[in-house]
Specification:
It contains nine helices and no strands. It has a single domain, classed as AhpD-like (Up-down Bundle), CATH 1.20.1290.10. It is mostly helical. Helix content is about 60%, strand content about 0%. Helix 4 runs antiparallel to helix 5, helix 4 packs parallel to helix 7 and helix 7 packs across helix 8. The longest helix is centred in the last third of the chain and has 24 residues.
Length: about 180
């Protein structure tokens, strides 16, 4: 990113019309609206439609929360999205990943300590990032455990969070208060 200043600043609440208020009220977390949603509020129709897909990937996916968060963290790391990393490091802790596991995501699938299948998930995220395709060996390892819907959700999870990372970095969305970025 060229600058630390937002390219598209979060839309101040004083500028929320009725449509934006309705959409953003549904996105509140802990009584506040995250900067990502306030930034996307500049385009309410896009935000409304994107939320449907985003909610599937984040809440209704066939993947376990742990598997989903490993994929999201690795994608945020690969894409250099500090906002994505920070938000999902917090979510990962809430669902039971340890600080050491979260930090280990930065070292990738070959870092010691991963369960073999979790290493495969991280490898899938890396291959999608690098090649836009999961390689045959990784696909076979995923398919040995996952059904078709789960295989699809792996690809769409990495794809969704690649898209989000691109938007966050391009728009310069600032970290939310109290959210740490990348590990130092």
């Amino acid at each position: 990113m060229a600058s630390k200043a937002p390219r598209i600043a979060p839309l101040p609440s004083a500028q929320w019309d009725a449509e934006v208020k309705e959409i953003l009220q549904a996105t509140q977390m802990g009584g506040r609206v995250l900067n990502i949603f306030q930034t996307l509020a500049h385009h309410p129709k896009l935000l409304k439609r994107w939320l449907v897909f985003g909610n599937h990937v984040l809440i209704k996916s066939t993947l376990s929360p742990r598997e989903r968060e490993l994929l999201i963290l690795r994608t945020g790391w690969n894409c250099g999205s500090e906002y994505e990393w920070g938000q999902h490091a917090s979510i990962a802790k809430q669902i039971g990943l340890t600080a050491a596991e979260i930090e280990r995501v930065t070292h990738g699938p070959d870092a010691s300590g991963w369960d073999p299948f979790e290493a495969v998930l991280l490898r899938a995220a890396d291959e999608l990032h690098r090649d836009s395709c999961i390689g045959d060996a990784t696909w076979a390892a995923l398919a040995a455990r996952y059904n078709t819907q789960q295989l699809m959700d792996v690809v769409f999870t990495v794809g969704q969070y690649t898209l989000v990372s691109m938007a966050l970095r391009s728009f310069g969305v600032p970290l939310d208060e109290g959210v740490a970025g990348f590990p130092r």
